Each structure stands twice: as C-alpha cells, then as structure tokens.
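Internal ticket #5521
Category: modeling
Description: The requester needs a full-assembly model to guide mutagenesis choices. All entity lines are attached below as received. Residue total reported by intake: 641.
Assigned to: D.W.
Attached entities:
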Amino acid sequence: MLDRIRDLQGSLSRFRQRQRASTTRDPQAKEVERRVADLRRELADLDAEKADLLRRRREIQRELGPSIGRKVMPLARVEKTNGTASFVAGVRMMQRIHRRAENPAHGFDGAGAVFADRGTTERFVLSHDVPLRTTPDEGPTDRTVVVHAFHGQVGLLEVAVGGAARHLDGDLADLGDVREAVPHDGDIPLPASLGEVAAWSARLSDHVSRPYVQVVWRQDGDHLALDRLDVDPDRLPVLTEEQDERLGHLFDTGHARMLKQPYLAGALENRVPGGVFDPNEPVDPADAP
Amino acid sequence: MSPSGAPAPSAKAAKRLRRVERQLARRRDQVERARAQVAILEDERLSPMRRTVRDAEDPERALGDPSYTLSARLHRRANTTRVYTRERMREPILQLYAKLPAQRYAALHGVRVPQVLGRWPDPGAVVWDDLPDRFVLKSNIGGGGMNVFPLVRDPGTGEWTDVLAQERTTPEAVTAKLWDKHEKRSTYFAEEFLVGRGGDPRSVPDDIKVFCFYGEPVYMEVRRGDQSRASHITQQVRAFAVDGTELHHVRALMDASDGDVTAPSDFPAIAEACRRLSGGIRRPLERLDFFDTDDGLVFGELTQNPGRPPALVPEWDRRMGEAYEAAYARLLADLAAEGALHVDHGDRPDAP
C-alpha cells in the first residue's frame, strides 16, 4: 500500500514538473524545470532503494538480535563482540600469512621444509621419542588416521576406510556425521592403537611452530605407520558450525602456544632505540623516588 | 525579480533546483551509508567459517580472504577470554597499557608526550592550588575518557570546569570519581592541558586514533567529543586513510559525523610517528592515539584491543586484513631470523 502511495506521489510530482516545463515560456526556466524533473526521478529511485536497504538492515538486525538476548541487534552493539572462534578461519589465516614467505610451502619458520623431507621428518619424530609405526594393529589396507592437532591438543581424529570416515574428538568420543564432504560411517572399526596415535600426534604438534598441524598415519601391513606431518594442508575439513567453533577454541589456544616460543625467548619484548623497553624504569628519572 | 517584486519564474525554478539538489545530495549520502551498513551486516550474519569459504565450489579447498574484523577479534579473545593467562603469557604490549609507561615508550622513540606536572598515589593527595589554571588529571590505567579530567579554573571565581563533560565540577567530585574507579590499583597524575591546533584554549584537542600494523599505519579516525562521562555529548568522527584521503561510511555502524571535525594538519608526521612506535611493538596490530596541537603531534595512549574492534565495509575489511597479514608475516620473518620461531627438535639422544 505504502509503495503504491509512493508511486502515485512520484507520478503526481513528475506530472507537475512536466506541466511547469510545458507552460513556462522562458527557455532557461524550461531547462531548469527539466533538470528538476530529472533530479526528482533520481530522488524517487533513491528513496525506493533506501527503503529496501533499511528493510534489509532491520531483517538482519532481527536475525542477529537473539545472539545477545534481544529482539533486535542495535547497530552500535555489533562491534562490541569477541566474535566466534573458528577452526577454518583461523587455520586459513595462518596459512595465508606463511604463504607470504619467500618459499610459500616452507613458511617463515621453515616447518614446511622440515616436513617435506622424509629424513628430517623422521629425525624430528624420533627425537621426541615417538615411533614411526605402531605395534601390530591389523586393519583394512586403505585405512588412514588423520589427527588434527593444535599445539599439544587433539581436536579431531578421522579414521577413514574406503572413502568414508568415522569422526572422533580428542577423547575418542564419536562425533557422528560432522563433515559434509566425507561420508560418515559409524561402523568403521577403530584401530587398537588409536589412543597411542593420538597421544603421539599431540606430542609432536606441541613442538611444531604452527597453531595447527595434521598428523597423518596410514595402514602399512599389520600396523599403522606415520605418513606425514602437514602444516599447510590443501584440504581442510569444513565441519558443522558447532564443531568448527569447538576446534576454533583449540586453534585460539594453539595460536597462543605458537607465540610462547618467541615469548619465552624475549623476542616479543617492546623495542626502543638501543634495546628493549624496560617497564620498571622510573617514568622520569628526574622525579624518581 | 518581476516588476511586482515577486521572484521571476526562472529565479523560482533555480531556487527549486537548488533545493532538489540539496535533497538529492542528502539522499545519496543516506543511501550510501545504508548500503555500507547492510554490506557490513551481511558479513556479520555469517559465521567466521562461512565468511572464509563463502560460495567456493569446494569449500574445503577455499583459502579465504584476509579480514581485519576476524583477525582483530582473534587477538581480542586471546586477551579477554584469558587464553594468554591460561598459557601463562603476558603480552609485552600490556606493559604499555598504563599511560605513563606508554608515554615513556613514546618519548624514547622521540615522539612528543605531554609534560607531567605531578604524580600521586591517590587523587586525594593532589595539591590543586599548586597546579596551573588548566591541567588534565588522569588515572594511570583505564581506557577511554572515564579516567581523564581536563580541568579549567576560572581565575576570578576559582570555580572548576570539567571540559570533557562540559560542566562545573569541584576537586572533591573529581577526586571521588577517580578513586571510585581504580582506588589503589592505579596511580594518578596531572599533565599539561594541550590545546588543539588553532583551537580554543579552553577546549581539548581532537583525538587522532591510528590503526597500525607492526610499523605500518593504515587507517585513522579523528574524534571530537567524548561520551564516556557525558551521554549528552555527540561524538563527531572523520575517517582517513594514512595518506590523508578522507573515507566515508567505511565504519558505517558508528554514528555519523556532522563533519565539523578538523582534518589533521600533518599526515606524514602522523605516519612517521606511527611507524616508529608501532615498529617497536612485536604484535601485528594495535591502535595509537595522538593529539594534533599547535606544538605539533603529541602522543596520547596506546590500545592493544579497542573495546569495539571496528566492523568495516568489505573493501576496507579486506584492505586492513591484508595489512594485518602482511604485518604478521613481517613479524614472523623477524622472529624466525632471530632464531625465536622454529620447529623444536627433541633431545632423545639415540635419534638418528
């Protein structure tokens, strides 16, 4: 109804403009009236667009309102948030950053180079007292176990056989069908050594200078063998929103732990000309007690 | 004019034209603002995961685009949800959270800071009669204008005016407000009353807030009026790129400015000060605040996580996100070059 009234008002206004333009004899005034008519048409279009935009704005504010326990999210409140932790957003951000390195696959810390080489990978793994293979653990020949680890914490394990997978959390509890891209099969038997594999993967990830790493194990004869550590995975599980946020919190912790290495080395200290800023120095030596 | 004295038809038409042009300019601005607001809100509807994968054909291979909002919120969560505390870390930038150490940090970098007139363990110890007729009394900790009292004494009556709240006050009222907020957790200090460039000596200078990324300033806001202690004051804001280009509706969810704020006088000087100060802070982002005065640029304070990390229109969210990721890349490169970031090999002696 309102739209109809607005249309009628617009038509009336345009009619009046045309009338003015046609009745006046002053050619200059005629030109001005024509210009006025053009501008009024533009104004009417903008009015319509503004009404649509405000309607859409209100819709989204209503959609966001419940997240803060209100019917409508006030515009000024949108910025007052910590946001939501996210696995995909966090991991992809860190990948984009490391890919700015001279050798994008290696990253700034060289982790990609370490794990691109079988020999250096094995030396790293063994140096942390982690074996390269489990004790005998029979299973399908195409079985793989992917451990998604966040600097000492396991967030997700995927036991995959024949194109399907079973998803478990770090406590080996079944998560069900949480990854749209990989068919879920809750009947896939779990490797007997899964707990050990998870613990070893967590230990290794704790010594990798990234918030997140995939530790991949594959069936090799009658046991599981370490296949690779991947700090720059091409594929990243897109999980349900709930699981993405759960792993997002682990990413946040992994990110903090990544920074702990330079933090403990004093490399994050604030710099001033000639050295490191000492917060304990008196503010002004002249009036120090 | 017509012989009767009434405006000639062409004059009336020209007047009508000007009126419609003004209407149109206003409407264009309103629509541009509404477009920007909807664009920001459309992104806010999406979870960070959906914001990353968007409509990629294969979401699991989507690398996503940089986003300032998502990055700033990661750092804010780390501080406010005690992630660093649980990991027994205290970010060194927090050494600069208090105003006096931050001013000393700035001074060591050769950036001008306000002159400190006195320091006291509690605001009750301030000897008001020994202070000039115009000074600013502050708590060493706390953000915003809550703990900042720019004060002017009328030499005739001896009465004080709180310039921020634009109201009369007394030493007792100011003392009580400062003490109620932080009590013994803070120290209190008086500093010189800065005057904005070409401004009224009884008004505070505009606040210049610059968003910096490990040595690279990118975006700044100039704000006049502080609502922290006076809700009747309308804050006015103008936004600029670091090169001085004025930006409109970039942070469109904030109240619009009425355009009365003066643009900074020396953008290169701001950029230079930011490069020095931000370059010494080993963190990919922070905000630096300055005052533009007749004596040049003066450092105000530093904020590791603004209480309201800006939500920006998509173009600027990405642009600032790029700046953030480039900054983080430079930081990681520096840390790795210093041997402070690397894969950590264990010490099992029999490893090959």
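Resolution: model delivered.
Comment from assignee: The first strand of chain B starts at residue 116 and ends at 120.
Ticket closed.
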